[in-house]
Design goal:
By secondary structure, this protein is of the alpha/beta class. It contains 18 helices and 34 strands. Among the domains are: 255 residues, Rossmann fold; 122 residues, ANL, C-terminal domain (GMP Synthetase, Chain A, domain 3, 2-Layer Sandwich). The strands form eleven sheets. A seven-stranded mixed β-sheet has the order 7-6-19-18-22-23-24, with helices on both faces. Strands 9-8-10-13-14 form a five-stranded parallel β-sheet, with helices on both faces. Strands 25-26-28-29 form a four-stranded antiparallel β-sheet. The longest helix is centred in the N-terminal third of the chain and has 17 residues.
Length: 719
């Protein structure tokens, strides 16, 4: 392997070239404990997990050298790098001379990002028609697994295209045109990606709303984007429970009409597994049964060719003000970026079977259930019984020398245990899933999982203990983990391991993806060199970046570009170690300043979770008359463990021992559960209000996965 001295060090490579000296196969680094992929379990003492020589030889990016070669070009010649990749897709007309145009500095005028402007394409065509023309017509595109075991379906790429064209033709028939918005409020049925692709085919802008949001939240989104149609189904099963989605849509349409936004068409799919049509409330003239109209339309539909900078979708994400932000992604750059990140971050091979357990109501479901995989011609598994993403919750039943099999992983899902807790592993075995992008449940050993090749984890920083459990138990210490960092706004992975390319450090997102220039700045916006902690920003644009907040470009600039002019501000804190590895430390509004010490909430939470009786923890800052801010910890205990003063002291001592006395929580608040969004993100805004006893300022809690948790926390506030 080449010495790092042979590599020309440029400013943008200063924090990635350090990894070039690390061996890609067997061996140890001095002063570090290491384990090799497939040869041993990763223990709490292991700092590094190396890819095996065999895995690296077969990987798309087999070495640090190859990564550095590609990364260097992506930064020094982004136009050439991304043009070459974009050329692998179909363009009706090639883009203009300038591959990209950007201004990220509000001091120089309006923020603007454009990629492949003037290029004419269509993402649906590239997902389906292009793959069919390449000989994949009969390849399975989608395996669908119902909530109820034993019920499944599948579509080849050819069959999927036919279904998409029928719906696209219907939408055109009711007057949906290029640029019109369509709200999609569907569970994880085949009809969900079909609808997304049908909208894209005719140039309509889809806005998927997770089928679990309240009618009030749905109404907000309807009012904001003023859709030509709402597409839903009558009901869905979550485990044994039936949820009447049509009732929620009806209520939302009543609310939106009060705000002056009426919708003329509500296309409703009859999900017979959950509810019969005779039991569905109906408004004649507005409501249309999918099965009564869509199958009557032709199975071919002309493509609406769009500019690369024409909008593809709106996806609403929570804002600090409580008003949802309509993140707008455009077509060309998003297409190229999601396809490329999927390919390399998961080391995708044409023989892989891929399953991402995210719902299409979230950005993960857009980029890594639908578009990214299909652009690569992948076989994709959809599961109706939606699983959401694990954060950093791992329980230790005993002391640190406990055997790995007695670790218990905690995962927050809608239906993880129906009809039994190992359901997801049954699905892995049934479809011989090779790439699994999720976070796991407890009951692992009952299934073989031998097909698994690569694991992926997304969300808040996964702590090292959770990472090791995922690696050792789920992947049998033979599957690399793509522990990715990215956001709704970024469109795709930003900092991510590339399987086979370099050693992984449990809990680290490792290095930037091609074309991404992460920088860590201090409070004044000055870039910090070397080993450090600070605010994570991104210098220069990348193709997958969102272009604006729908109807509110001023908020777009104020939120993301004004804090540190010239940079995209992620809102996250980050540490970079001496080897250049990146460690996400949580949202910077979750950084607590205690007597001058800046402490990331994730750091304190990881310390609490390492306690053998702590299942999960969430930490917020509260006003403190002496220290400025105090540390307030919400703690969920291992099942069967009771609250006690002795345990409270033990938890505080654990933090003192691991971090220092300055980080010791001032308050331990016992928490049966934590307020989370449907995607598993902890709503710390609500926790801060509870901690500061501002109970009249909690805001809308109906969009939480479990709204009742808030009342439980309030009741336990003084315990």
């Amino acid at each position: 392997m080449a010495s790092p001295k042979n590599l020309t060090t440029n400013n943008h490579l200063r924090h990635v070239e350090s990894m070039a000296s690390l061996p890609s196969g067997a061996g140890k680094i001095s002063h570090l404990n290491a384990v090799i992929l497939g040869e041993a379990l990763a223990s709490e003492e292991d700092d590094l997990v190396f890819p095996s020589d065999d895995f690296s030889r077969q990987a798309l990016i087999p070495s640090p050298q190859k990564y550095l070669e590609m990364y260097r070009r992506s930064i020094e010649d982004p136009a050439g790098f991304w043009s070459d990749i974009a050329s692998e897709f179909y363009w009706k007309q090639r883009w203009q001379d300038h591959v990209y145009s950007e201004n990220l500095d509000v001091r120089n005028g309006n923020v603007k990002i454009e990629w492949f402007k003037g290029g004419i394409t269509n993402i649906c065509y590239n997902c389906l028609d292009r793959n069919i023309e390449a000989g994949l017509a009969d390849k399975i595109a989608l395996y669908w697994e119902a909530n109820e075991p034993g019920i499944d379906a599948s579509l080849t790429y050819s069959q999927l295209l036919q279904r998409v064209c029928q719906l696209a033709n219907y939408l055109k028939a009711i007057g949906v045109k290029k640029g019109d918005a369509v709200i999609i409020y569907l569970p994880m049925l085949l009809e969900l990606p079909i609808t997304m692709l049908a909208c894209a085919r005719i140039g309509a802008v889809h806005s998927v709303v997770f089928a679990g949001f309240s009618s009030e939240s749905l109404a907000q989104r309807i009012v904001d984007c003023k859709p030509k149609a709402v597409i839903t189904c009558n009901a869905v099963k979550r485990g044994p429970k039936t949820i009447n989605l049509k009732d929620i849509v009806d209520a939302a349409l009543v609310e939106s009409a009060k705000d002056g936004v009426s919708v003329d068409v509500c296309l409703t799919y009859e999900n017979q597994l959950a509810m019969k049509r005779q039991d569905t409330k109906w408004q004649e003239g507005r409501d249309i049964w999918w099965e009564d109209v869509v199958p009557k339309y032709p199975t071919t539909c002309d493509v609406e060719w769009v500019d690369a900078e024409d909008p593809l979708f709106l996806l609403y994400t929570s804002g600090s003000t409580g008003k949802p932000k309509g993140v707008l992604h455009t077509t060309g750059g998003y297409m190229v970026y999601t396809a490329t990140t999927f390919k390399y971050a998961f080391d995708y091979k044409p023989t892989d079977v891929y399953w991402c357990t995210a719902d299409c109501g979230w950005i993960t479901g857009h980029s890594y259930v639908t578009y990214g995989p299909m652009l690569n011609g992948a076989k994709i598994v959809l599961f109706e019984g939606n699983l959401t993403i694990l954060k950093h919750a791992i329980l230790f039943q005993h002391a640190l020398d406990v055997s790995i099999d007695s670790y218990i992983f905690t995962c927050y899902m809608q239906a993880p245990n129906y009809p039994h807790p190992g359901r997801c592993w049954d699905i892995v075995d049934k479809y011989k899933v090779t790439i699994f992008y999720t976070a796991p449940t407890l009951h692992v050993k009952r299934c073989s999982r031998k097909s698994l090749r690569v694991l992926g984890s997304v969300g808040e920083p996964i702590n090292p203990s959770a990472w090791r459990w995922f690696f050792n138990v789920v992947g049998d210490s033979r599957c690399p983990i793509s522990d990715t960092w990215w956001q709704t706004e970024t469109g795709g992975f930003m900092i991510t391991p590339l399987p086979g390319a370099w050693p992984q450090k449990p809990g680290s997102a490792t290095f930037p993806f091609f074309g991404v220039q992460p920088v860590i700045v201090d409070e004044k916006g000055v870039e910090i060199e070397g080993e450090c902690s600070g605010y994570l920003c991104v210098k220069s644009s990348w193709p997958g970046a969102f272009r604006t907040l729908y109807g509110d470009h001023e908020r777009y600039e104020t939120t993301y570009f004004k804090p540190f002019p010239g940079y995209y501000f992620t809102g996250d804190g980050c540490s970079r170690d001496k080897d250049g590895y990146h460690w996400l430390t949580g949202r910077v509004d979750d950084v607590i300043n205690v007597s001058g010490h800046r402490i990331g909430t994730a750091e304190v939470e990881s310390a609490l979770v390492s306690h053998p009786q702590c299942a999960e923890a969430a930490v917020v800052g509260v006003e403190h008359e002496i220290k400025g801010q105090g540390i307030y910890a919400f703690v969920t205990l291992v099942e069967g463990v009771s609250y006690s003063e002795e345990l409270r002291k033990s938890l505080i001592l654990t933090v003192r021992n691991q971090i220092g006395a300055f980080a010791a929580p001032d308050k331990i608040h016992w928490a049966p559960g934590l307020p989370k969004t449907r995607s598993g993100k902890i709503m710390r805004r609500i926790l801060r209000k509870i901690a500061s006893r501002q109970l009249d300022e909690l805001g809308d809690t109906s969009t939480l996965a479990e709204p009742g948790v808030v009342d439980q926390l309030i009741a336990l506030a003084d315990c």
